[in-house]
Write a structure and sequence with these properties.
By secondary structure, this protein is mainly α. The protein is 55% helix and 0% strand.
């Protein structure tokens, strides 16, 4: 008898649990981006578009005791789960080949977190969509919410879920350190980094090549730049109007000591900073806190040896 009571309680609470999951997923993703400074890629945005409306849809459906609520939820969760699974497979396997989206801006395979060696943000998203799908199916097969039951609109229960989850995240947002303070600033010592530089050309050699005429190899820096910086600063590093400045003539990149430039990138540039030429803030680490110090120094070295700089 006790098991039946617990089962009935679980079934009747399925959609309230779904509301809690949707709120945690929504506020958690905002915490990652707004507090930790993790810039979403294109696939992340698709998942956000499918997850965020769930909070409002479930609240309205519960308050109206709408028996069709599970039908409204399932298309979002199934589609979202498909995208999240695809995203996770791109991150962790080579089964699907190279990403066909995220060709500019943040790469789809960027892993801001990697808890336990397998838990990434797409994994968390995939899990949230899966749990929402299961809870919606439980409600659907059990006839919940039941508008003909004697239970009235669940104002108290809905308000309780919203206040508890919202209160927890309000505390987390208010007490969290800034993204700049939370980033690791000394992942590797600058002295341990050996940049790939263009040697001084011999007499008669073409500038930008070594004495044997071979172009210096900056392919690693170029690839990192295209994945991490090109969305704002352009494919040729000469800036994008209204987004990012021209890095080929930037004193902060071309003239400052690499260690100072690294520190500057790690800290970010506020919109009102005197050195900001666009009026738009650059997030700490350019929105790529997953990059190591060596990665950023490789990008700096590439920019210092960019063909435009050598002309």
């Amino acid at each position: 008898m006790r098991n039946t009571t617990y089962t009935d309680l679980f079934v009747r609470s399925a959609l309230y649990m779904a509301l809690a999951v949707a709120m945690v997923a929504t506020l958690g993703s905002l915490y990652f981006s707004e507090v930790n400074g993790y810039v979403p890629c294109a696939l992340c945005w698709y998942q956000r578009i499918l997850m965020y409306p769930m909070v409002g849809i479930i609240i309205i459906g519960l308050l109206r005791m709408d028996a069709n609520l599970p039908y409204y939820v399932l298309p979002f969760t199934l589609f979202g789960q498909s995208i999240a699974t695809y995203h996770y497979l791109l991150q962790k396997t080579t089964l699907l080949g190279a990403p066909t989206v995220c060709r500019s801006g943040v790469s789809c395979i960027t892993a801001y977190i990697n808890w336990g060696g397998f838990i990434t943000i797409p994994f968390l998203s995939m899990t949230a969509f899966f749990v929402l799908t299961i809870l919606a199916l439980i409600a659907l097969t059990s006839g919940e919410p039941d508008p003909d039951s004697r239970r009235g609109p669940p104002w108290t229960a809905v308000l309780g879920v919203v206040l508890v989850i919202g209160g927890i995240f309000y505390y987390l947002f208010e007490t969290a350190p800034s993204a700049a303070a939370s980033l690791p600033l000394t992942q590797v010592a600058v002295g341990d980094f050996t940049p790939v530089t263009t040697p001084t050309p011999a007499a008669g050699a073409v500038e930008g090549t070594d004495s044997a005429g071979d172009t210096a190899d900056h392919s690693a820096g170029e690839q990192l730049y295209l994945e991490s910086c090109a969305a704002c600063h352009g494919q040729d590093a000469q800036g994008v109007a209204g987004l990012g400045s021209d890095l080929t003539v930037s004193a902060q990149v071309q003239e400052m000591d690499p260690a100072a430039t690294l520190a500057r990138v790690r800290t970010g540039i506020a919109a009102d900073d005197p050195d900001n030429q666009t009026g738009l803030a650059m997030p700490p680490s350019g929105g790529r806190p997953d990059l190591s110090d060596a990665d950023i120094l490789t990008i700096i070295d590439y920019l210092r040896n960019h063909p435009t700089v050598l002309e």
